Amino acid sequence: MLDIKFLRENPDIVKENIKKKFEDTKLPLVDEVISLDIERREIQAEADNLRAEKNKISKEIGALMAQGKKEEAENVKKKVAEFSQRLKELEEKAPSVDEEIKKRMMIIPNIIDPSVPIGKDDSENVEIEKYGEPVIPDFEIPYHTEIMERFAGIDLDSARKVAGTGFYYLMGDIARLHSAMTAYARDFMIEKGFTYVIPPFMIRSAVVDGVMSFDEMDSMMYKIEGEDLYLIGTSEHSMIGRFIDSIVDENTLPLTLTSYSPCFRKEKGSHGLEERGVYRIHQFEKQEMIVVCKPEESMDWFNKLWSYTVELFRSLDVPVRTLECCSGDLADLKVKSLDVEAWSPRQKKYFEVGSCSNLGDAQARRLKIRVKDEDGKKYLAHTLNNTVVAPPRMLIAFLENNLNADGSVNIPVALRPYMGGKEKLIPTK
Q1: Distance in Å from the first CA to the final CA of the chain
Q2: What is the pLDDT of residues 320-374, one digit of tens each?
């Protein structure tokens, strides 16, 4: 959410930013906010003047009564009553105007960084760099669920009976591989100096409103019926929510945290073959990284965060590339975003396995996360998040890139301590 003072003083910049994101339907919101803001400040000014005048003439009543001027005192009382009635009207009107301003401000997009490429959608995202040599083996790579089935490692049919589509049972070596990846990712981030956290897996609506846009909430979040609780779509929601309405000592920054959680997502819409299996599902697990920092440090942290994901994937022998998200592919709260994509030898192309986002002060403004410097001055923190690893998609990339012609799967050196020292997985079928 933008600072209303910034919008008030820079409406053309805000409108140009909306155009860059190809969200022209939101352009009228800027003028509507400016008009409502004028109305709100007029209400405040009139209320302040009425209070001052009311206090001033209220003092006259006692003096007039003391002088025996009861009639004049009664007239002043009537005036005070009139002021009180008007004040009540203004005080009742102000919250509704504030709410109308907030509703519009919540859907006006954040100002994107000047370095963000301009484009309408994800088809216009820009490749930055490739890491590792993409290999197409001289044998056929099966679909990822077929690979898992060779290890008796997945049961989709039973999951559909129990929970419906978009769920799965993982078993045996595949389940162990899944857990090994999250454990390895956890320790990888701890070695980078991040503090490990297991957060709540449900959050209140006030936190939901603070961490994401309305469009994201509608397409992602599951609501707990009858309670003010939502299942988290990613641990970032719960982790950033931890600092709601708080003042952070500047000397403690940056806060570097890595969190594990299950994630729950609606994943609305129909999806093609490549998004079945364990690619696009309603429940999965993820290791995340979160940073709360000074504004001037956020871009440095942005570059560190995505580089950690690249480093982790390369340590598991998975080629990846980085992709700069264009303006039209950025969620409204984001200043800048970069995707990490893994190579799929089967599809002969890359697919998304992680996303790094700098949200500037948008989440901090919504959640009132402030920093106090050594002089006692307060300012809004910047927040960032990035996927370390989401095992379902990592499983796809890992299995395809480490598969041998005989159906066995190589275990890279980094992962072997988490797999009981195994160097290979041998299929049972």
Answers
A1: 54
A2: 999 999 999 999 999 999 999 999 999 999 999 999 999 999 999 999 999 999 9
Give me the percent of the chain exceeding a pLDDT of 90.
Answer: 83
Six-digit token string for 361: 């002060």
Residue 243 contacts residue 369 (beta carbons within 8 Å): yes
pTM value? 0.90
User: Among candidates 413, 422, 187, which has minimal Cα distance to 316?
Assistant: 413
Q: The tokens of 199 are what?
A: 């957060």
Q: What is the pLDDT of residue 269?
A: 53
**Which of 235, 226, 225 has the alpha carbon at shortest distance from 203?**
235
3-state secondary structure labels for all residues of 139-198: CCCCCHHHHHHHCCCEEHHHHHHHHCCCCCEECHHHHHHHHHHHHHHHHHHHHCCCEEEC
**Can you tell me the distance from the alpha carbon of 174 to that of 422, in angstroms, rounded to the nearest whole number?**
13
Cα angle at 281 between 290 and 264, to 5 degrees? 50
Q: Is the pLDDT of residue 274 over 70?
A: no
Instruction: Tell me the C-alpha distance between 180 and 184, whole Å.
Output: 6
